[in-house]
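During the second half of the funding period, the structural biology subgroup turned its attention to how the target accommodates small molecules. The most pressing case was zinc ion, which had performed well in the primary screen but for which no bound structure existed. We therefore specified the complex as follows and requested a full 3D prediction, including the ligand pose.
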Amino acid sequence: MRVVQGMLEARSRSRFDIVDVTGEVEKWLAQIKAGNGVLVVYTPHTTAALAINEREEGLLDDIVELLKELTKPERRWKHNLVDDNAHAHLGNVIVGGDKVIPVSDGRLALGTWQRLLLLELDGPRVRRINLVYVGE
Ligand code: ZN
């Protein structure tokens, strides 16, 4: 069994954005010649999150709209007195910033419509995604 660590960067284009990082992650798995195992995907940020879901344009807009409804960016949150992004921290708390994905024959064992999505809640920024592969 081996443990391989890596890091990717994803660039968001606006305050709210969803970046599909599935392809980059699979490229990394190919580079390290992954076999069968698991991949931990972790974003070390408090104002972005990770989700696995379908990359359909309407749905991506719906996800952003839902997060806005839940986290109310215009509300006078206490954190906004020191940093104008309380909604983004709250979105990270709700969605989470990590995933564990099975890897089969070096590829993410995702369902047909599943993609790994970085949810940007306070962009545009360059976001880090840490990877830990554990497997053969
Ligand atoms: Zn903040």
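Two results from this model are relevant to the next phase. The pocket of zinc ion is lined by residues 79, 83, 85, 89 (CB under 6 Å). The radius of gyration is 16 Å.
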